[in-house]
Amino acid sequence: MQTQPTILPLENGDRLTRQEFERRYEAMPKLKKAELIERIVYIGSPVRASHAVSYAQIIGWLWSYSIEVPGVHLADLVWQVYDLRLDWFRWHEGTYQPLAADDQGILRSQVFPGLWLAVDALLDGDVKEVLKLGLAQKSA
């Protein structure tokens, strides 16, 4: 009985011919993306869950605002997850200027009425409090 030759998995940093790269890549259907650049294999790292959760929370908050306010289109802010810091900028005289939170720890948009962000609540994962503040401003 003849056995099939073992196909080694792709590993980041492997030095392969194009033919060998394609053979191994096809044998790994769950691999999302790998590249061969100048005979070196590059495999991107998966997104960590901590980043994905934080990103989903801020997008949910922005999405909630955008569906309530006609003409607003959704875009991202800057959340430095590992540094437990959120940066919010405004466009002013041709440059992005950082906005600071007020004494209550709230960032208030200078462009979009009622778009307020309770930074500490967001960083603590209290998304209900983040939404409550925004909804309270909308109904006031």
Summarize the structure.
With 140 residues, this protein is α+β, with helices and mostly antiparallel strands.
Structural account:
34% of the residues lie in helices and 21% in strands. By secondary structure, it is of the alpha+beta class. The protein has a 3-stranded antiparallel β-sheet. Helix 2 (49-68) packs parallel to helix 4 (127-139). The protein starts with 17 loop residues before the first helix and ends with a helix.
Strand content: 15-25%
User: Span between N and C termini?
Assistant: 79 Å
Biggest sheet, spatial arrangement of strands: 3-4-5
- Low-confidence parts: none
Q: Indicate the overall shape.
A: elongated
The total beta strand count reads 7
Helices and strands: which structural class?
alpha+beta
* Helix content estimate: 25-40%
SS field, number of helical segments: 4
Q: How does the major sheet shape up? A: 3 strands, antiparallel
Reading the helices and strands in chain order gives HEEHEEEEEHH
Nearest-angstrom radius of gyration?
23 Å
